[in-house]
């Protein structure tokens, strides 16, 4: 039932593992490649079943709630036995065949424009499985979308290109120093891959959307938007400026991590419209914006 990850109504597969560590990440549970167990306190009734069934004795209680030991191997026993689903396993291993059998059940809902999106974390870290999955989907006549940050080898994109109907490509920050500061990595490979992919999609009749998260104090500067506009131009079908949201605050608490943007407010409609106009005036007429914005009428 995804309407945010490509055209039409889609089924989106989110994988774990990402080479970037964006400080604003809305899916921080997807950054580590390994599976882990999360505790949701609002569901917990304190029955203690999880501690009793843990085969390694790795679950403890205190006044702050349930804790899993560092040696937890995410076997999933506690999550299966918890009567209120207060423990959730983040990261489940599937074969490509098993995953295909799951997503193809949604086919009746996709319509003419929808299909399957492979997203992250970063899907290109598992590109061989992604390629096999897309081959199966294309053989069945299913529309495919690949959501990527672009931080991967060129050869990976070359392999996936013939089986990808549309790329959703993130361009977050143009300045390399700022990109390193906020994501932990240089953007050199990302920009080089975008230049190549934009031209190849044009040659081969593939679609490409660019998405830029608009993060207060990070990506929301006029200079950043102007600079990205200079490379996006009209070479893509759409450039989407995605307004910051703070719906992931609880995720960071469950992970026991501080979030740099915990107190940051939503973008205003006026700001999003202004940045979109800057993008258009800077040479990218395909720029649009999306997302919820702060109310300014109260």
Give a brief outline of the structure.
This protein is an alpha/beta fold and 298 residues long.
Can you give a write-up of this model?
The chain is of the alpha/beta class and 298 residues long. The chain has a 7-stranded parallel beta sheet. The longest helix has 17 residues, at 188-204. α9 packs across α11. It has helices spanning 49-53, 77-81, 96-103, 107-110, 127-139, 154-160, 176-183, 188-204, 222-232, 249-254, 269-281, and strands spanning 10-14, 36-39, 59-62, 65-68, 87-90, 115-119, 143-148, 166-170, 207-214, 238-243, 287-290. The chain contains 11 helices and 11 strands. It has 2 domains: 10-32 and 94-290, Alpha-Beta Barrel (TIM Barrel); 36-90, 2-Layer Sandwich (Alpha-Beta Plaits).
Provide the fold topology.
Elements (H helix, E strand, L loop, with lengths): L9 E5 L21 E4 L9 H5 L5 E4 L2 E4 L8 H5 L5 E4 L5 H8 L3 H4 L4 E5 L7 H13 L3 E6 L5 H7 L5 E5 L5 H8 L4 H17 L2 E8 L7 H11 L5 E6 L5 H6 L14 H13 L5 E4 L8
Parallel strand pairs: 1-6, 6-7, 7-8, 8-9, 9-10, 10-11
Antiparallel strand pairs: 2-5, 3-4
Helix pairs in contact: 3-5, 9-11
CATH class of the largest domain: Alpha Beta
CATH superfamily membership of the largest domain, which one? Aldolase class I
Number of strands: 11
Mean pLDDT: 95
Could you tell me the radius of gyration in angstroms? 21 Å
Helix content: 25-40%
Global geometry? globular
Number of helices: 11
Number of domains: 2
Series of secondary-structure elements, N-terminal to C-terminal: EEHEEHEHHEHEHEHHEHEHHE
Proportion in β-strands: 15-25%
Major β-sheet, in short?
7 strands, parallel
Major β-sheet strand ordering: 1-6-7-8-9-10-11
The name CATH uses for the topology of the largest domain is TIM Barrel
Structural class: alpha/beta
Oligomer: single chain
Query: What is the terminal-to-terminal distance?
Result: 33 Å
CATH architecture of the largest domain: Alpha-Beta Barrel
Spans of at least 5 consecutive residues with low confidence:
none
């Amino acid at each position: 039932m995804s309407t945010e990850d490509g055209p039409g109504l889609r089924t989106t597969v989110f994988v774990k593992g990402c080479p970037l560590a964006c400080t604003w990440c809305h899916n921080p549970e997807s950054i580590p490649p390994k599976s882990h167990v999360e505790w949701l306190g609002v569901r917990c009734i304190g029955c203690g079943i999880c501690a009793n069934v843990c085969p390694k004795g790795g679950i403890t209680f205190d006044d702050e709630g349930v804790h899993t030991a560092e040696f937890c191997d995410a076997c999933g026993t506690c999550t299966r036995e918890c009567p209120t689903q207060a423990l959730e396993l983040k990261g489940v291993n599937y074969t490509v065949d098993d995953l295909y059998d799951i997503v193809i059940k949604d086919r009746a809902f996709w319509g003419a424009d929808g299909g399957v999106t492979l997203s992250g974390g970063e899907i290109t870290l598992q590109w061989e499985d992604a390629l096999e999955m897309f081959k199966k989907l294309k053989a069945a006549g299913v529309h495919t979308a690949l959501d990527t940050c672009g931080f991967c080898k060129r050869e990976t994109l070359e392999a996936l290109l013939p089986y990808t109907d549309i790329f959703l490509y993130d361009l977050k920050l143009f300045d390399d120093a700022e990109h390193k500061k906020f994501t932990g990595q240089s953007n050199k490979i990302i920009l080089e891959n975008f230049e190549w992919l934009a031209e190849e999609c044009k040659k081969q009749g593939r679609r490409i959307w660019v998405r830029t998260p608009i993060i207060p104090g990070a990506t929301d500067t006029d200079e950043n938007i102007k600079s990205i506009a200079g490379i996006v131009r009209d070479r893509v079908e759409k450039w989407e400026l995605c307004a910051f949201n703070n719906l992931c605050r609880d995720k960071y608490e469950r992970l026991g991590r501080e979030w740099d943007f915990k107190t940051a407010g939503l973008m205003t409609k006026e700001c999003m419209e202004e940045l979109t106009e800057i993008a258009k005036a800077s040479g990218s007429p395909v720029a649009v914006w999306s997302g919820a914005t702060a109310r300014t009428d109260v």
